[in-house]
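Researcher: Re-running this chain for the archive, since the previous output was lost when a drive failed. Same request as before.
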Amino acid sequence: MSRSPRSRTVEIISDERYVQAESPRWDGRDGGLAWIDMATGRFHRGRIEGGRLLQGGSVLVGAKIGAPAPLIEAGAGWIVATERGVVHVADEGGITSVVVDLAAPEDYMNDGACDPSGRFWVGSQSMPRDPHSSLWSIDEHGVAVERLGGVTVSNGLVFDGTGSTMYYIDTLPHRSIEAFDVAPDGTLSRRRTVCAVGGGNPDGMTIDREGMLWVAVWDAGEVRRYSPDGTLDETIALPATRPTAVALVDDLLVITTASIGLPRPSAADGAILGVRVEVGGAPALPWGGAMPLGGHRDASAGGSDS
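Model: Regenerated structure tokens:
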């Protein structure tokens, strides 16, 4: 059972509204924030100043995009899941293929994150909804290895501080948080259920410096904090119905939301929200690769907006 409710103030921190904002990532290289609008295929960057999210540039990456992860060096850009594969998005907006044809033809790539070894883990979601999708890891050379099959909607994914435990959400059909042991070579074992997540669909997830898991619960209008043993520690009610993902920018919990599919969106639906918490988090772990990897530059895709 969760503790007594804390006094929290949830604020809208973005001026913009998005169709399906997802995957916020705190950039440890320059302190900025990156996120995507999955439905419009745009990768966005900005920064938080004075409690407000200031929009920076955006890049049209593709028809659908998934999670981003920074490269190690400042100015080296981002690796971004997109449609059926993964691309590199340069800071000036150029797009280069890294891996192609991971997802099945009717499916598309979704959430992901890097582990402390620099591998980018990313999964796909199935269309129609049945368990034929997968979770992959992509090493610094761009080599993809299927790590888990039988996935339906690959969503939240985080690693503990040592990288020896992975927490993972395959949203359907079980609506639960799972955990795996992770070997140094990336092999997964000892799959177990941490807890069921009721009242909505568990979506994006992050981990704080105490090892606690923050989860956005789509259609519940909530973000919840769970312990690694599955105990519900706190529930934060939101003014938005469909929170999609979370990130900790130090002690600011950043929450992306969606307006897609809502007949009468509120002022908060599709906005990016922020709430101060006691225990902060760390910047997004970077991908260990460097560009170019011998991939091809797609001159027909992309384009940076100021």
